[in-house]
Amino acid sequence: MSEIYQQLAESFPPEMVRRLNKGGTNLIYIPISEVITRMNKIVGVENWSFTVKSWQQLGTSIVAHVSVLATI
Question: How far is 51 from 38, CA to CA, in rounded Å?
Fold first, then answer.
């Protein structure tokens, strides 16, 4: 099981890291599609879910705080 934790904790490649500067807020993030791909690959499509805790629209972008639950 520690192999799964190691895979989930791996840093994303620098080319996947995005920056967004809106309204004086500087955000560093990974696109959700990359996070979904990693979760599906490592724990399986049926073994994880997420809940949106809060969200905010910044221009044409949506910034969300989510909670992820994985069954390992």
Answer: 17
Q: What angle do CA 67, 68, 72 make, to 5 degrees?
A: 150
Q: How many CB atoms lie within 10 A of CB 22?
A: 14
Answer whether 0.70 is exceeded by the pTM.
yes
Would you kindly state where each structural domain of the chain is located, as residue ranges?
2-70
Q: Cα(58)–Cα(22) distance, rounded to whole angstroms?
A: 6
Please write down the long-range contacts of 7-15, taking CB distance under 8 Å and 24 or more positions apart. 7/38, 7/42, 8/38, 8/39, 8/42, 8/43, 8/70, 12/38
Q: What are phi and psi of 63, to 5 degrees?
A: -110, 125
Q: In order along the chain (72 residues), what is the average pLDDT of each group of 10 residues?
A: 90 93 83 94 96 88 88 88
